Amino acid sequence: MAVSVTKIICIGQNYPAHAREMNSPAPVRPIIFLKPPSALIGDGDVIEARLELGRVDHEVELALIIGKRAKRVPVENAVDHISHLAVFNDVTARDMQSAARTSGQPWSLSKGMDTFAPMSTPVPTELVADIHRLDLELRVNGEVRQKGSTADMIFPPERLIAYISKYITLEEGDIIATGTPEGVGPLNDGDLVEAIVPGVGSVSNRVRRT
Ligand code: MG
C-alpha cells in the first residue's frame, strides 16, 4: 500500500485465556497502547532483540488496516473503515514490560523497539471470508506455540474501532493490532518465528539475539 502509517494501535489482553496467562482479569474496556511505525518490518526481515533485554516474546495477532478516516464511528459502521487485513507479530520485551507494569510505568519501550512489529503484506478485506472467524497460529522452528480464533476476542474489530475512534482519529493506513491468544513464549537466537492467519497470510522472521 502506498499510504504511510501514522500510528499502530495495539490492544492488550483481548482474549480471555491470554489475560489469564498474564495473571490479569479480563478487561472491561479495551486496553490501548501504541507502537511507533519505525518498529515495522516485513516477511523475511530479522527481529533484532539484544540479549540484555532478557525474555522477548512472540504474540500472533490479526491486524486491521484503516481505509478511510474514522472519527467517532458507531459500531454499526465501523467495519466499513477496514480496507485490508494482515498478520502481525506483537514482539514484546516481556521482562521489561513486567517491570514497567509492576512500577506503574508505560509499556512503550518494551513494545516499540525497532523490528518489534513484523507484519505480512496486507490483503483487501473483501478477499477474506469472515474476520470474526479466522484462525491464528504461531510456530517457532516449525513447532506450533499459539493457536486461536478471532471468534474468541473479548472486543471484536467493530467495537475496537468504535471505542478507539471516540478518542483518537484513525487515518487511512493506520494499523490496529487486535490482541493475541494464549501461548505467548520466548524467542531465542536463531529461531524462525512464523505468524499465520489462513486466508490472510503469514509473516516469517529469523530472530537475532546478541
Ligand atoms: Mg499483543
Helix-strand blueprint:
Layout: E1 8-12, H1 16-21, E2 31-35, E3 40-41, E4 46-48, E5 56-58, E6 60-66, H2 75-78, E7 82-89, E8 92-93, H3 94-102, H4 108-112, E9 117-118, E10 123-124, E11 135-140, E12 143-149, H5 157-165, E13 175-177, E14 185-186, E15 192-197, E16 201-208
Parallel strand pairs: 1-13, 3-9, 4-16
Antiparallel strand pairs: 1-2, 5-8, 5-14, 6-7, 6-13, 7-10, 11-12, 11-15, 15-16
Bound molecules: magnesium ion.
Magnesium ion is lined by residues 10, 59, 61, 90, 179-180.
Fold and architecture overview:
By secondary structure, the chain is an alpha+beta fold. Helix content is 16%, strand content 34%. It has a six-stranded mixed beta sheet. Strands 4-16-15-11-12 form a five-stranded mixed beta sheet, with no helix packed on it. It has a three-stranded antiparallel beta sheet with strand order 8-5-14. It starts with 7 loop residues before the first strand and ends with a strand. It binds magnesium ion (MG). Residues 10, 59, 61, 90, 179-180 line the site of magnesium ion.
Give short descriptive properties of this protein.
single chain, 210 residues, alpha+beta, Fumarylacetoacetate hydrolase, domain 2, five-stranded mixed β-sheet, 16 strands, 16% helix, globular, binds magnesium ion
